[in-house]
């Protein structure tokens, strides 16, 4: 049978989609390769969210196209958001690509590969509002942690965001299906489960009864014996209710870490961007969360250079960040995405947006320095993620660190550690923004 290679780009949700495609391909009898060289088909699962993601996807396509030209790759199949958004442009400007699958056509990966191997061109852009189809996965994360996607699509319709046009309306998975998958992941050795969706807090509102079901789902996940940490990403401010707050506070397995994308704090900009709530509402919510969930670490995303953001609005944002002192902040310059309402609005030029993002990063770096300094002298539970050959040292993460986006803890130890184990580490220093410590004596 043919050998199939995969490249997955973009967010964790896209990674889960790729893992499902890999499973279908292997189940059909094909060999799934660890790399792409000498593969009969290379599947490039793309992100098309913002300009930088589009550029990254195109760069990967061009690199694989060079391998194809050199005879080291057979066919190229582009899947995901970029193919959903720009099928005509891919066909016209990237003739090396042999086929595209849209975001509604992941389940057709095997027929697509079969057609490519028969030298047929493939273009399948299925309905983006179709229900999620349950299937297995081939894990691409380390064995001790995994992402679990509980819904697809988005109904928020933020004025700057293209996702609803690429991923369709919000569709929750059935809770029984999510729990079954979680149990299988736990049995396979997963100790940290990271709950993701475009908006996890809306989970269940599209199902019969239209109730928020994230809190009940989290309580059921915490009953899975072999799971040690449950982490929640992408919780929207206006959907956080008392039940969810109490569940996070009371359940020991739920790490006290919330990813809450706020994007801005100025009321006029939030309204223009079709975001629900106000700056005052967000500030009150953050105060409420910190009061009721001791030790809570908050991650958020901020967009600078949004339509309507002048010097006064940006100054307000900076003061908000200094006052709220959220531990994890990602700042992104506004990217006017064609097809969205915001792209038709007046907005600062890209240089201004970039400069403002860098200013936010400077503010946040000082907040992070203070947070890290407050950890020195404390003994923290750390999940061992790996061993760095160059540094000759093990590293891991605390509850305050989500994989790939937050920092590391460098661990000094007399005896080798086991990746995937939890150890108690006494923090004694901070280097280049990372915590450093040693294994505490029992």
Descriptive notes:
The chain has helices at 12-27, 51-69, 81-85, 87-93, 109-117, 163-167, 175-187, 214-222, 242-250, 267-272, 279-292, 311-324, 350-375; strands at residues 3-8, 31-32, 39-46, 73-80, 99-101, 122-124, 145-149, 151-152, 171-172, 192-196, 229-232, 254-259, 297-304, 328-333, 379-388, 393-397, 409-412, 422-431, 434-439. The chain has 442 residues and is of the alpha/beta class. The relative contact order is 0.08. The mean pLDDT is 96.
Question: What's the helix and strand layout?
Answer:
Elements: E1 3-8, H1 12-27, E2 31-32, E3 39-46, H2 51-69, E4 73-80, H3 81-85, H4 87-93, E5 99-101, H5 109-117, E6 122-124, E7 145-149, E8 151-152, H6 163-167, E9 171-172, H7 175-187, E10 192-196, H8 214-222, E11 229-232, H9 242-250, E12 254-259, H10 267-272, H11 279-292, E13 297-304, H12 311-324, E14 328-333, H13 350-375, E15 379-388, E16 393-397, E17 409-412, E18 422-431, E19 434-439
Parallel strand pairs: 1-2, 1-3, 3-4, 4-5, 5-6, 7-10, 10-11, 11-12, 12-13, 13-14, 17-19
Antiparallel strand pairs: 8-9, 15-16, 15-18, 16-17, 18-19
Rg calc: 22 Å
Estimate what percentage of residues fall within beta strands: 15-25%
**Which secondary-structure class do the elements indicate?**
alpha/beta
Basic shape: globular
Unreliable segments (pLDDT under 50, ≥5 consecutive)?
A: none
Provide a brief overview of the structure.
The chain has 442 residues and is an alpha/beta fold.
């Amino acid at each position: 049978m043919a050998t199939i290679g995969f490249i997955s780009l973009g967010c964790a949700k896209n990674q889960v989609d790729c893992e499902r495609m890999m499973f279908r391909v292997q189940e059909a009898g094909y060999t799934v390769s660890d790399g792409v060289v000498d593969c009969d088909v290379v599947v490039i699962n793309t992100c098309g969210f913002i300009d930088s993601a589009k550029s990254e996807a195109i760069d990967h396509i061009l690199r694989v196209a060079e391998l194809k030209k050199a005879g080291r790759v057979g066919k190229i199949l582009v899947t995901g958001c970029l193919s959903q958004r720009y099928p005509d442009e891919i066909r016209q400007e990237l003739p090396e690509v042999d086929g595209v699958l849209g975001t509604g056509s992941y389940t057709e990966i095997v027929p697509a590969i079969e057609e490519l191997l028969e030298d047929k061109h493939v273009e399948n852009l299925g309905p983006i509002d179709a229900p999620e189809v349950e299937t297995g996965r081939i894990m691409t994360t380390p064995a001790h942690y995994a992402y679990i996607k509980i819904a697809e699509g988005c109904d928020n319709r933020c004025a700057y965001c293209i996702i609803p046009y690429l991923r369709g309306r919000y569709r929750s998975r059935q809770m029984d299906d999510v729990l079954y998958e979680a149990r299988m992941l736990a049995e396979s050795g997963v100790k940290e489960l990271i709950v993701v969706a475009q908006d996890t807090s809306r989970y269940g509102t599209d199902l019969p009864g239209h109730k928020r079901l994230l809190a009940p789902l989290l309580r059921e996940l915490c009953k899975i014996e072999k799971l040690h940490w449950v982490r929640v990403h992408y919780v929207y401010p206006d959907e956080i209710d008392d039940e969810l707050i109490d569940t996070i506070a009371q359940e020991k397995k739920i790490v006290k870490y919330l990813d809450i994308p706020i994007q801005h704090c100025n009321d006029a900009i939030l309204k223009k961007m079709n975001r629900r709530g106000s700056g005052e509402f967000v500030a009150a919510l953050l105060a409420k969360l910190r009061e009721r969930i001791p030790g809570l670490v908050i991650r958020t995303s901020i967009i600078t250079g949004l339509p309507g953001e002048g010097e006064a609005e940006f100054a307000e944002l900076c003061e908000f960040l200094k006052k709220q002192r959220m531990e994890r902040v990602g700042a992104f310059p506004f990217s006017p995405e064609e097809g969205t309402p915001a792209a038709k609005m007046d907005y600062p030029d890209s240089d201004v947006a970039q400069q403002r993002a860098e200013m936010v990063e400077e503010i946040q770096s000082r907040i992070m320095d203070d947070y890290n300094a407050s950890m020195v002298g404390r003994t923290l539970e750390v999940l061992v993620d790996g061993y760095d050959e160059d540094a000759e040292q093990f590293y891991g993460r605390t509850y305050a660190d989500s994989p790939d986006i937050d920092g590391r803890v460098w661990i000094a130890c007399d005896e080798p550690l086991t990746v995937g184990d939890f150890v108690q580490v006494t923090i004694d220093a901070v280097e280049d923004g990372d915590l450093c410590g040693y294994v505490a004596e029992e």
